[in-house]
Structures are given as structure tokens and as C-alpha cells.
């Protein structure tokens, strides 16, 4: 994990001395779990917060969506983001830098332009379980410790923008009839329209489907040896086997004991929770948003 102080030198921006690994997936799909597991191995590390969307959006802060096109990766943007990767690798003496920001599932071509030698782990999960979990996050109470942990990585010049957004988001939840935030998770271009037209559960379903579909389409264009696909349900059912395969594909040296220790806290208790928590009418209302993607992923 992260150790040390930030120190940005002039000779960074090379990405040569370590392997970047980008974990891609819709929110609540096991991305955090996978990130924590892989970062337990020697020589592997990440930032001490679950996402760095502030860093990825620097230079494109005014974009209304997280679905950045490739051309948003302008030279100044590339330099800034690479410096953050390079500094983390250098100060923590890492051979592998892991990054997990769910919004990246909407902008793989942009990420590829910024970090051209990255390898990707695409983790996906049954959309019904994702919807049930994401719905709770949209209505969650304030976790100040979590917010402050992430705020450490907001670029200084972007602080006023994010402070205003944070206050507005919390005020919206306070006065909302649904008790929900104004926004949460990867931002879709038509998010406000969706929220006015559909139930919150349906919006979660659309958010999941678009993240998965966008990631799948973009990753399919990358070299096969740069992309690892992981089914959440398979991983939690046999974490040692699945994680060993991931380490081999990424060429991360790990002993059997290290693999076993890394996955010891993995649990399959969340599999099927979505179907158990929702009634037949709710599940039926989600079908138009989920059916096609679920079928393609083998869940139907």
C-alpha cells in the first residue's frame, strides 16, 4: 500500500520502471475487493483511497460526463496524471501500480492515451446484485472520514469546484423526497434526465449497464494479453484459483502462501443478495435495463 510523501520531480512521467494495472468495472462489482487483494502482494501498491477520479478529471473538470473521449487526453493532462502514477511508484518502491476508479469504465480510450502500457482487469458482476448495492450508496449518510481521505488527492486548483459540488450534493439529499444524493458514481451525460424519468433502482441499472457495455466494447479493441476478464461470482467461489490465474497473467510473482493470505477475507455472502432483497415487481421493472447485458454476460 502507499507509504511515503508526495515529491514531484522533473524526471518523472516515464512509466518505464513499473507496470500500471487498471481495474475496470461498474460500481459495486467487486472492484474494491480485487484492489485490496492484489495490493496485499509484495511490490504492489495503490493510493490510500478507493478512487482518484479527481486526478483523472484534472484538466477536464468542467465535463458534465465521465465518458471522456480519447482526445481529452491532451499533453498537459497526460503529464499531470502520469506524474501521480510515477510519484507513487517511486516513493513506495513499487513494481506494480494498481488504480481503480469506476468511472474509467466509461473512458478506456482516454485512459489508454494517458497510460499506454497499462494492463486491465475487467471485473463484472450480476447486475441485479449491483443495483441493490448501488441503491444503498445513493441514499447513504455522510461518511466524513471517507470524504477527507479522498479529498487529500484533489488538485489544489480544483478544490473550490469540488467543495461547491459536495455541499450541493449533501444539501440535495437533505431536502430530497427520496432521501438520495443529486449524483453518485460514474456520471452519465443524461443523468439528470434519467433521474427525472426513472426510479432510482432503474437508474442504477442503467448506470451499471452503460459502464459494463462501454468497458467491454473498448477493451475488446485492446491486445488480448493486456486484458483479464474476471467474473465476480467465480472469484468469490474459488478466490485462490482465480487470483493465482490473475497473478500469472499479470506476471506478478506470488507464492502459494502469499496468494492464500491475500484472499483470506474474500467472502461469497453477497452473491444473490439483490434478488433476495427485491420483490417480483421491482425485478420486472429492471428487466428492460438489464436483460440484454445480463444475457451477454451469461447471467440468463
Tags for this model:
300 residues; alpha/beta; Rossmann fold; 5-stranded parallel β-sheet; 50% helix; disordered N terminus
Describe this structure in words.
With 300 residues, the protein is an alpha/beta fold. The protein has one domain (19-297): Rossmann fold, CATH 3.40.50.300. Helix content is 50%, strand content 8%. The protein has 14 helices and five strands. The protein has helices at 31-38, 53-57, 75-91, 108-114, 127-138, 144-151, 159-175, 191-197, 200-219, 232-237, 239-250, 256-262, 273-277, 280-297; strands at residues 19-24, 44-45, 96-100, 119-124, 227-231. A five-stranded parallel sheet has the order 2-3-1-4-5, with helices on both faces. Helix 9 runs parallel beside helix 14 (280-297). The model is unreliable at 1-12 (pLDDT under 50).
Summary of the model, kept short:
The protein has helices at 31-38, 53-57, 75-91, 108-114, 127-138, 144-151, 159-175, 191-197, 200-219, 232-237, 239-250, 256-262, 273-277, 280-297, and strands at 19-24, 44-45, 96-100, 119-124, 227-231.
Give helix % range. 40-55%
What is the number of helices?
14
Instruction: Characterize the main sheet.
Output: 5 strands, parallel
Relevant CATH superfamily: P-loop containing nucleotide triphosphate hydrolases
- CATH hierarchy, class: Alpha Beta
CATH architecture: 3-Layer(aba) Sandwich
CATH topology, anyone?
Answer: Rossmann fold
Secondary structure tally: strands: 5
The Rg value, from CA coordinates, equals: 19 Å
Mean pLDDT over the residues: 93
Class from secondary-structure proportions: alpha/beta
Order of helices and strands: EHEHHEHEHHHHHEHHHHH
The structural domain count equals: 1
Q: Shape, please? A: globular
- Between the first and last Cα atoms, what is the distance in angstroms? 38 Å
Low-confidence stretches: 1-12
In terms of DSSP E residues, the strand content is 5-15%
Adjacency order of strands in the biggest sheet: 2-3-1-4-5
Amino acid at each position: 500500500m502507499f507509504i511515503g510523501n508526495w515529491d514531484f520531480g522533473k524526471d518523472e512521467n516515464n512509466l518505464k520502471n513499473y507496470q500500471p494495472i487498471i481495474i475496470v468495472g461498474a460500481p459495486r462489482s467487486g472492484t474494491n475487493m480485487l484492489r485490496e487483494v492484489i495490493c496485499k502482494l509484495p511490490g504492489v501498491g495503490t493510493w490510500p483511497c478507493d478512487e482518484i477520479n479527481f486526478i483523472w478529471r484534472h484538466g477536464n473538470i468542467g465535463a458534465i460526463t465521465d465518458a471522456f473521449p480519447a482526445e481529452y487526453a491532451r499533453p498537459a493532462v497526460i503529464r499531470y496524471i502520469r506524474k501521480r502514477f510515477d510519484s507513487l511508484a517511486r516513493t513506495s518502491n513499487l513494481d506494480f501500480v494498481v488504480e481503480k476508479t469506476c468511472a474509467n469504465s466509461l473512458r478506456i480510450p482516454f485512459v489508454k492515451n494517458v497510460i499506454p502500457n497499462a494492463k486491465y482487469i475487467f471485473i463484472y458482476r450480476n447486475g441485479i446484485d449491483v443495483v441493490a448495492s448501488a441503491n444503498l450508496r445513493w441514499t447513504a449518510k455522510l461518511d466524513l472520514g471517507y470524504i477527507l481521505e479522498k479529498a487529500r488527492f484533489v488538485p489544489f486548483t480544483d478544490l473550490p469546484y469540488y467543495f461547491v459540488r459536495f455541499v450541493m450534493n449533501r444539501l440535495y439529499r437533505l431536502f430530497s423526497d427520496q432521501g438520495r444524493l443529486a449524483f453518485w458514481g460514474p456520471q452519465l451525460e443524461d443523468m439528470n434526465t434519467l433521474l427525472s424519468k426513472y426510479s432510482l433502482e432503474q437508474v442504477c441499472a442503467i448506470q451499471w449497464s452503460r459502464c459494463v457495455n462501454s468497458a467491454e466494447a473498448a477493451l475488446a479493441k485492446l491486445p488480448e494479453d493486456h486484458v483479464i476478464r474476471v467474473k465476480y461470482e467465480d472469484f468469490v467461489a474459488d478466490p485462490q484459483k482465480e487470483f493465482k490465474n490473475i497473478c500469472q497473467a499479470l506476471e506478478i510473482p506470488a507464492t502459494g502462501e502469499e496468494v492464500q493470505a491475500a484472499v483470506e477475507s474474500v467472502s461469497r455472502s453477497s452473491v444473490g443478495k439483490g434478488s433476495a432483497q427485491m420483490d417480483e415487481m421491482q425485478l420486472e421493472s429492471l428487466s428492460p435495463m438489464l436483460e440484454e447485458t445480463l444475457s451477454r454476460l451469461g447471467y440468463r
